[in-house]
């Protein structure tokens, strides 16, 4: 069993060192034993954290997270609405909250986000690693004074160009909201946007050339690229190559980055449509989530369907399963890039069909397009590059895809009762 009084941790702070009363110590031990020794310290008796940057804590709230799935979850995002923490919303700022692991006396990657731009924090997110069936408790600390926590390492970032990244993969979008992909070298994770764009979001480096960081592995051309938006009408495909869109950074790191892209309405023989796409990426993750909202302004054919595409490459290997929702491709696109992989995963419950033409493979959603009734879809995309190490074959890329899909399970936190800080 870990020592009940932890040593100082430079990047975090230190636990209060005065001894616990006997009754509290018994409760602390019982809390650990009740969870089989693998759970967290009893939320009500866990020692309080001291930090030099904090004059005094206002209080803390325990957050219980349970992994009710059969798979071990690594660096899984846990999102908690700030309202669930019963904290004074007007007093909150990104620096007024801190997440602590009472077992290890360490700070997991976390951040508090204002998602609607009203100046008030809406959601707290942190990363959790849990074994199947494991339950753990984290503590969310709140301070009204002294809000300069030790700066966390930045693992994600975003630009309004639009571009977004984690330390493992970078993405950008243009045209029909195509997703372009920059794959990192396996032995050199890190952020690259600052190397390729200046302060005005102007490109200053050719990322199509191989660099120490990696390479852009996808040449889109006149195709659907990776997850480009489209409408299928029978055997016809309408891809809004020239549709204009605006983009906005909702959140830019350090743990989660979110970019929102909103198209202007575009017309096609199938009807008039407008797609708003929200892209999200987390630290330590190579995949990005795409949430699309399709506004149907007019529809000319009730058989028309919305979809996203994946460009074909000569000599490629392709595997598609509507049962698992996974679409993977391995190809050799050019001598400069060599072998690389692309993948799309759509949860099967959404219902989609695979369709093809000479240039693209399509994932076409089964839900009808109805005027005045928005359609919402969700997908994940990622890629790999043999030249960067890590993934060297189609089989290995499929295994990577299966592992990523297995991690996309809901993991939520349950907030407990607010505990005021003890008086000095």
Characterise this structure.
This protein has two domains: 49-151 and 410-420, Immunoglobulin-like (Sandwich); 156-392, Beta-galactosidase, Chain A, domain 5 (Distorted Sandwich). The model is unreliable at 1-41 (pLDDT under 50). A hairpin with a 3-residue loop joins strand 25 and strand 26 (360-365). The chain is mainly β. The strands form six sheets. Strands 16, 17, 18, 19, 20, 22, 23, 24 and 27 form a nine-stranded antiparallel β-sheet that branches. Strands 3, 5, 8, 28 and 29 form a five-stranded antiparallel β-sheet that branches. The protein has three helices and 29 strands. The chain has helices at 22-34, 193-196, 394-407; strands at 14-15, 49-50, 59-66, 73-81, 97-100, 110-113, 123-130, 135-142, 156-159, 163-166, 169-174, 178-184, 214-216, 226-233, 236-238, 245-252, 256-263, 266-268, 271-282, 288-299, 305-311, 317-321, 326-332, 339-345, 352-356, 360-365, 375-385, 413-415, 419-420.
What attributes does this structure have?
424 residues, mainly beta, 2 domains, five-stranded antiparallel β-sheet, 29 strands, disordered N terminus
Give a quick precis of the structure.
By secondary structure, this protein is mainly beta. The chain is built from three helices and 29 strands.
């Amino acid at each position: 069993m870990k020592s009940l009084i932890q040593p100082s941790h430079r990047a975090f702070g230190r636990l209060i060192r005065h001894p616990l009363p006997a009754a509290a110590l018994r409760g602390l031990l019982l809390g650990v034993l009740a969870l089989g020794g693998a759970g967290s310290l009893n939320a009500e008796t866990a020692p309080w954290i001291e930090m030099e940057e904090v004059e005094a804590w206002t209080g803390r709230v325990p957050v219980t997270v349970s992994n009710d799935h059969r798979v071990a979850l690594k660096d899984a995002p846990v999102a908690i609405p700030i309202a669930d923490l019963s904290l004074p919303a007007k007093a909150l700022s990104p620096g007024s909250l801190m997440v602590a692991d009472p077992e290890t006396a360490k700070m997991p990657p976390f951040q508090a986000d204002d998602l609607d731009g009203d100046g008030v924090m809406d959601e707290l997110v942190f990363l959790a690693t849990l074994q199947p069936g494991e339950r753990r408790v984290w503590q969310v600390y709140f301070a009204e004074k002294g809000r300069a926590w030790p700066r966390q390492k930045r693992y994600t970032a975003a630009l309004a160009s639009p571009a977004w990244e984690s330390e493992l993969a970078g993405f950008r979008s243009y045209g029909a909201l195509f997703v372009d992909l920059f794959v990192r070298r396996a032995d050199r994770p890190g952020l690259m946007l600052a190397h390729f764009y200046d302060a005005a979001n102007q490109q200053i480096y050719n990322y199509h050339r191989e660099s120490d960081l990696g390479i852009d592995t996808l040449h889109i051309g006149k195709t659907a690229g990776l997850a480009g938006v489209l409408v299928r009408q029978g055997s016809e495909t309408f891809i809004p190559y020239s549709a204009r869109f605006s983009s906005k950074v909702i959140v830019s790191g350090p743990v989660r980055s979110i970019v929102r892209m909103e198209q202007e309405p575009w017309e096609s023989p199938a009807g008039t449509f407008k797609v708003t796409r929200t892209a999200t990426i987390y630290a330590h993750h190579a995949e990005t989530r795409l949430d699309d909202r399709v506004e149907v302004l007019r529809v000319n054919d009730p058989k028309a369907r919305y979809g996203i595409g994946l460009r074909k490459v000569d000599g490629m290997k392709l595997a598609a399963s509507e049962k698992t929702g996974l679409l993977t491709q391995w190809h050799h696109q050019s001598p400069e890039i060599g072998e690389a992989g692309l993948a799309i995963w759509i949860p099967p419950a959404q219902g989609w069909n695979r369709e093809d033409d000479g240039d693209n493979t399509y994932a076409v959603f089964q839900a009808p397009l109805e005027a005045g009734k928005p359609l919402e879809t969700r997908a994940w995309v990622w890629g790999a590059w043999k030249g960067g190490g890590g993934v060297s074959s189609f089989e290995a890329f499929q295994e990577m895809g299966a592992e990523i899909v297995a991690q996309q399970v809901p993991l939520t936190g349950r907030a407990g009762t607010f505990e005021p800080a003890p008086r000095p």
